[in-house]
Amino acid sequence: MELRHLRYFSVLAEELHFGRAARRLSISQPPLSVAIRQLEDNVGARLFERNSKEVRLTPAGEALRISARRVLLQAEEAAIEARDVALGSAGRLRIGFVGAMLYRGLPQALRAFQAKHPAVRITLSELNSGVQIAELLNDRLDLGFAHTRRVPLELQHRLLLSEPFVACLPAGHALARKRVLAPADLREQPFVLFSREASPDYHERILSICADAGFLPEVRHEVRHWLAVVSLVSQGMGVALVPQAMRHSALRGAVFRPLDRVVAQSEAYGIWRNGPANVLVERLLQGVADSIAAEQAQA
User: Fold this and answer.
1) Taken in order 297, 179, 184, 234, is the CA torsion positive or negative?
2) Domain boundaries of the chain, sorted by first residue
């Protein structure tokens, strides 16, 4: 059953006159008659009673008239939605992000994006980098903001930010009296560490900072989110090395100090699936990049 046949049928059901219906459809009468016969053959029932004086709907035709109107309306709405999605004015975005992105301009970029695209439905999920990759591969996310560029060939990535690590200390810690720390200052301290399972990149990067300073950290706690790292430190449960952006977490009881002579950087990436361009993904990704650049310019 073709939408064209339903459209012809719907117009004829309103006009109950082949000539007037054909004129509304901008076709001649014979093609209209052929289309109605084909539709009746497809349905397996007569839809119109025809004689020289009038055209009337049969009971089957009356039932189809109601359904046809609903189907044609749904088809029109689907076409409008598809066009709006293609133009980037409507649709949905499923976004994954690591917690540190909350302090790297993501909220500001989302607010600006939503103001420009009020018809776009956005779903946000705080997920570590590994889970984001899995969700993207399973088509459960459209865009991720992660801490790794180690992605499968099915995904693309874009570097959004590179920033130094800083020391995170309990506010009353003796080392908090220093304005700048050397990594070696943390040699004897218990560490709260980002787990290898959650982000192998960050786990290894932090270990490498300690190794370059001549020690291996005494790991007391491993957690899966940066805010959890800072929270445990604020309760006096250890020290940590965290991305500089976490200074904006503003948790009482935690202080942050810059490190000298540290080469390793904390990096944030946008990651998304290969395939046809998604206008919404491209616009939000650029919005986040612009938001990060604006924050860095003000720093």
Assistant:
1) negative
2) 3-87, 91-159+267-298, 163-264
Alpha carbons 51 and 299: distance in angstroms, whole number: 83
pLDDT, tens only, 112-144: 999 988 888 899 999 988 899 999 999 999 999
Is pTM beyond 0.70 here? no
3-state secondary structure 176-191: HHCCCECHHHHCCCEE
Let me know: does 12 contact 36? Beta carbons within 8 Å.
yes
Could you name the CATH architecture of 91-159+267-298? 3-Layer(aba) Sandwich (3.40)
What is the b/e burial string over 25-51, where b = at least 16 CB atoms within 10 angstroms of the residue's CB? Answer: beeeeeebeebbeebbeebeeebbeee
Amino acid symbol at 232: L
Q: Is the dihedral of CA 247, 251, 255, 260 positive or negative?
A: negative
CA distance 34 to 132: 54
